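Hey,
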Amino acid sequence: MKASIFALALAGVASAHSTVYSISVNGKSQGLGNVQGGYIDSPPNNDPIKDVTSKAMECNVANIKASKSVAVNGGDKIAVEWHHNNADASDDIIDPSHKGPITVYMSKAGSSMSWTKIAEDGYDGKSWAVEKLIKGSYTGKPGQHEFTLPNVAPGEYIIRPEIIALHEGDRIGGAQFYQECIHIKVGGSGTTALPAGVAIPGYLSAQDPGVHFNLYGSYSSYPMPGPKLWNGAGAAAPAKPAPAAPTTTKAAAPAPTKVVAPTTTKAATPAKTTLATIAKPAPTAGGAGAQKYGQCGGNGFTGPKTCASGCKCVKQNDWYSQCLLQGVEVSGEVTVGMLMTLITSSNIGTHLRSPGLQDRHELHKQWEEQLTAIVEELHVHDIVWGDVHLMNVVVDEAMKAWAIEFVDGEKRETIEGDWQGITRLFQEWLPATMRRRQCQ
């Protein structure tokens, strides 16, 4: 492929990912926890983690650190509230295609955590946990997943809820993990010690049957990934009323989380952008600035405000700026349909015409193979995406018409009827493969 094809359009709509906004204790909301001064270690956006070996698997990408703990007691009913864009009643929680299990892990707070699984729900033969979450089956409120806190001894703890979205789990590395760490302070008279747990990352692998799982195949059960569920080692104490708002107890900080490259928070109406390639800056000697993906600014930040050679300090929000590769600039206005400039330079048309194409799933696999080749070619040419938010890719009508041209009459109905599925491929798979290259 020639460099001239790399000026493509990227505008659009946000993918329906999800993140934890708050918790309720015995039915009482504890207020937003994913804010500065809150009780949740919150990432900069709602994007998933896909590399199960990443340190970000523990508490997600570092951004806002919790500064409070929520006061609870053993036996309390804890409802974790997930949302897509906001905590409004109209929020769609998470895309219905993101079927999968929900689990909750717990650890003593401190510099080194050991995670014990205290709650799980997978597939019951009819519904997935994520489907129940969307419907509000756990508490009557959509987005809430509820579990009972074990009757553990008093102290500072962290609970870690997790959703595994399996809509791309048919290929190794395709499952999407959504997780955050919520700080709680357990009171009461419990005496049970939390048993030794597992390390995260390390609690599962990309090859585990509950992670590498074909959601589109035939199945009647689902193997829950990770360690076995702890039974709580005894009866829980009676539930006690929770305070209307979180306490101001200082939360014990978890182990430092390695920062991976986050993307910018999605706006309600994203601005159109153009990707323009520029020459990589020549390496310079030394430099005491922050390293790639390191923090370089934000309210209250006292560390280095410059970046290592080849990186630039990019503001993510008022509280966090990060060192990212200085390899692209974004300007102008374009349309997403120009994605076909990339794809028409490959032989994807031949794949779409192939007689073996039977259904949407196979179509996605064929597109994925071609997009993989495109991504590899981009990396060879040192082309990176920088500030362009690939989660906002949308396939416009021009792109749709172009793809249908390659499909015979027999298959045309399938493609048109499931165009949302093809759009989702661009929204979720492609951005997950586009990694910012390391600072030089």
